[in-house]
Design goal:
With about 400 residues, the chain is an alpha+beta fold. Helices cover about 50% and strands about 15% of the residues. The strands form two sheets. Strands 1, 2, 3, 4, 5, 6 and 7 form a seven-stranded mixed beta sheet that branches. A two-stranded antiparallel ribbon has the order 8-9. A hairpin with a 2-residue loop joins strand 4 and strand 5. Helix 10 packs antiparallel against helix 12. It binds ligand LLMBWK7S and flavin-adenine dinucleotide. Ligand LLMBWK7S binds next to helix 8 and helix 12.
């Protein structure tokens, strides 16, 4: 897909920034496992955080496609920088920009554009991963707001993010209303009371962003901080997932960037490494590996671009295209980074080599943001034109509903 002149200019500005500012920091961020506040400041200064925020709120009104162009360039060198750009342009931020009140949008815009915040999206729980709709976190109606109790885990940015979009079951007078999004802004330990950052979950890759448990202990959310998604709580989860499709495209782009970066390293090494008195690039076994890697990366990029440019029924990227893009990009990243490491031989296996980091970084994308299996369910459901319930009694309930309708 051709880029317009403006898009090509944005991509090359992002590339120059990534080469000069991001690449030199990547290894150190991984080694120290610490959140790169210096990079956050530089990314914010360069206008790459909050670029999708409307101009009226201080952003650039950039499209998700624009964001994708930037994210790939960052992730080519550093997956952490790529993921920060995803969460500061998509995910929770996208949901607030689409559904939020004017005050909520202003708050989110000020946090991201002014403070370089990377919002956190709090969906997953220890007993509700793929089966996210089985979450147990409850928001109980109280005077003037809601009180949330529950435990989330694997929350990206736990302890560094300020804005938290918390998914919880809304319960009023003991009756469940559906799943909603509740906004909390963390200013530090104990602020607000009840938003407790739990233990860090030490991860295999993308180590510069903390993944943590987030405990919600009688966290009070005023009515003004409930995200008023269309359809109310009854359609709350679906509406939040509509917005979440953008983050799936973002995650696919980080995977794509890692794969593209690994391919660059593999080509460079194949040209300079000599064995048997000749560059290893002269061996057909290596040439065909490189060719297959390039085919896979180009295919993933085409799919990611198609998804990023798409518009589903509710204005966000199309759910099926987002799922297809993430499946392909994530699996491509796993394969291509491993093949790139293979081309580097023992040097690639060394810890002070970027290949080892890229293999680890690539691994998360078939898991986080909807596993490759769950996303295949979504694609299959679309192909077959059937809802595909995954619970044991799911088909029975479908049959009962059909019988009742006849
Ligand atoms: C959706 C699932 C949780 C399966 O659960 P259910 O079988 O109970 O749900 P469904 O009936 O299929 O869906 C409920 C509701 O949501 C709508 N929906 C579902 N998926 C989408 C979508 N992609 N886009 C738009 N709408 C969607 C569906 O139509 C229903 O709507 P109505 O109620 O009928 O109106 C499960 O399939 C699933 O997706 N699990 C993965 C959970 C997940 O992605 N978690 C991500 C956590 S955040 C994260 O990992 C961040 C990492 S990174 O930075 O990316
Ligand atoms: C690095 C990282 C960052 C993350 N960041 C966040 C975040 O910021 N916010 C957040 O809310 N969550 C986050 N998550 C959590 C992530 O969304 C979940 O890990 C993911 O949804 C899968 O849930 P699970 O790990 O509990 O796996 P499970 O759901 O327990 O799945 C285990 C295995 O069973 C398979 N499986 C499950 N159900 C089915 C089915 N119906 N059909 C076929 N196979 C199935 C899965 O594909 C998987 O292979 C993150 C995870 C990681 C690893």
């Amino acid at each position: 897909m051709e880029l317009t002149e403006r898009e090509a200019a944005l991509k090359s500005r992002a590339r120059a920034f990534a080469e000069a500012v991001v690449a030199p920091r990547a290894a150190e961020i991984d080694r120290t496992e610490s959140y790169p506040w210096d990079l956050v400041a530089a990314l914010r200064e360069a206008g790459f955080l909050g670029m999708t925020i409307p101009e009226a709120l201080g952003g650039r009104a950039a499209s998700y496609f624009d964001a994708v162009l930037v994210i790939e360039e960052m992730a080519r060198h550093c997956a952490v920088a790529g993921r920060i750009c995803v969460e500061a342009n998509m995910g929770a931020l996208g949901a607030v920009m689409a559904y939020g009140t004017e005050d909520q949008k202003r708050l989110a815009a000020d946090l991201v554009l002014g403070e370089g915040d990377k919002p956190a999206i709090c969906i997953t729980e220890p007993e509700a991963g793929s089966a996210a709709t089985e979450m147990r976190t409850r928001a109980e109606r109280r005077q003037g707001g809601w009180v949330i109790n529950g435990r989330k885990h694997w929350i990206t940015g736990g302890g560094v993010s300020k804005l938290h979009l918390i998914f919880a079951r809304a319960v009023e007078n003991g009756v469940e209303q559906g799943i909603g999004g509740f906004i909390a802004v963390r200013r530090g330990e104990g602020d607000p009371p009840g938003l407790v950052i739990g233990p860090r979950q030490h991860a295999m890759g993308v180590r510069g962003i903390p993944e943590t448990v987030v405990e919600l202990r009688d966290l009070f959310i005023p009515d003004t901080m409930v995200l008023p998604s269309p359809g109310g709580f009854r359609r709350g989860f679906g509406a939040l997932m509509d917005a979440y499709n953008a983050q799936r495209v973002g995650a696919a782009t980080v995977a794509l960037g890692i794969a593209a970066g690994a391919l660059d390293h593999a080509i460079a090494y194949a040209r300079r490494r000599e064995q048997f008195g000749r560059p290893i690039a002269e061996f057909q076994g290596i040439q065909w590996m490189l060719a297959d890697m390039a085919v896979a990366v180009d295919a993933a990029r085409a799919m990611v671009h198609r998804a990023a440019r798409s518009r589903g029924p509710n204005g966000f990227p199309d759910p099926v295209l987002a799922a297809k893009a993430k499946i392909l990009a994530a699996e491509t990243a796993v394969k291509v980074t491993n093949d790139a490491l293979q081309i580097w031989g023992s040097a690639g296996y060394a810890r002070d080599n970027p290949m080892e980091r890229m293999v680890r970084d690539a691994r998360m994308f078939t898991i986080a943001g909807g596993t490759a299996q769950i996303l295949r369910n979504l694609v299959a459901s679309d192909l077959l034109g059937m809802k595909l319930p995954q619970t044991r009694d799911g088909w029975l309930r479908v049959a009962e509903r059909r019988a009742a309708a006849e």
